[in-house]
Design brief:
Strand content: 15-25%
CATH architecture of the largest domain: 3-Layer(aba) Sandwich
CATH superfamily of the largest domain: Periplasmic binding protein-like II
Number of helices: 13
Number of domains: 2
Length: about 280
């Protein structure tokens, strides 16, 4: 007999994401999963038996993960809370720097990575990736109202657009919006400083950069002028853990269909949402 299928609605998922810990079930019951296979214990079995999900999360990378008033919070933190609730286990987070994400997983310090992790061919040799879950992309941002995609190039004609020298953003800007006038910088910090001083009219960067502008009033005025390239994030799982990977993907399917991921994104990426952020569920 197949386990009964239960679902959290969007409100329950969002409330769970905002809580420190929680209990719930989206897809398969935990007990049924633990007892449904006679095979040797795998990572999913160990998580369900210990009743703890260990997750590598961003250490200081708003809006994905950061500490505010002594409390860890952010988009990735909320996703981790929802997944732990779905598994009916407690959440144990390990804040890590970007360079330590893979090592934390491979050294068994965590069960999964939820830390703005992009999928690359090199990384796929070492770990497996879930379906995409985060609305990250490369775009052009400024204070003008965002035009339709067909008008984006025309609207940026002759405008000074700041971009980091030698970056993927520079290549995409020159290829897709040749009408713009690129102004090159060595890193994101001087680029944003130039934008604040009105030395450039707009800037090309990841949408996370736009959301990280510390000046609240300025950040509120930022709008997406063009999407140059989708660059989604994925949950990382160790190789040869197909049941855990399938369980994570099942959670993401339900969280997406219930719009819980969308609501979470609207909270943390409110100024730079992409219209296609959840369209490609396999990316």
């Amino acid at each position: 007999m197949q386990p009964r299928h239960h679902s959290l609605n969007r409100r329950q998922l969002v409330l769970t994401g905002a809580a420190a810990t929680g209990l719930g079930s989206l897809g398969w019951g935990s007990a049924a999963l633990a007892q449904g296979s006679a095979a040797p214990a795998d990572q999913l079995d160990r998580i369900l038996r210990s009743k703890v999900l260990r997750v590598a999360v961003p250490q200081d990378f708003p809006p994905f993960g950061f500490t505010r008033n002594g409390v860890l919070d952010g988009f990735d933190i909320a996703v981790a809370r929802m997944l732990a609730a779905d598994l009916r286990v407690a959440l144990k987070t390990l804040p890590v720097a970007s360079g330590d994400r893979m090592a934390a997983l491979l050294e068994d310090r965590v069960d999964i990575i939820i830390a703005s992790l992009g999928k690359t061919a090199e990384r796929e040799r070492d770990i497996d990736f879930s379906a995409a879950y985060a609305p990250t992309y490369i775009g052009v941002f400024g204070e003008a109202a965002a035009p339709g995609a067909a008008d984006a190039a025309a609207a940026l004609k002759g405008r000074r657009v700041g971009v980091v020298r030698g970056s993927l953003e520079e290549a995409e800007l020159k290829a897709q919006v040749p009408q713009a006038t690129p102004v090159l910088f060595d890193s994101s910090a001087p680029l944003l400083d130039a934008y604040v001083r009105h030395a450039v009219d707009a800037f090309a960067a990841g949408n996370v950069v736009a959301e990280s502008i510390p000046d609240t009033a300025l950040r509120e005025r930022i709008r997406r002028l063009a999407v140059l390239r989708q660059s989604p994030c994925h949950i990382g799982v160790r190789k040869r853990e197909p049941r855990l990977l399938a369980r994570v993907d099942a959670f993401l399917v339900q969280a997406r269909s219930s719009q819980a991921l969308m609501v979470n994104a609207m909270q943390w990426f409110k100024h730079s949402l992409s219209p296609d952020m959840f369209r490609d569920t396999k990316g």
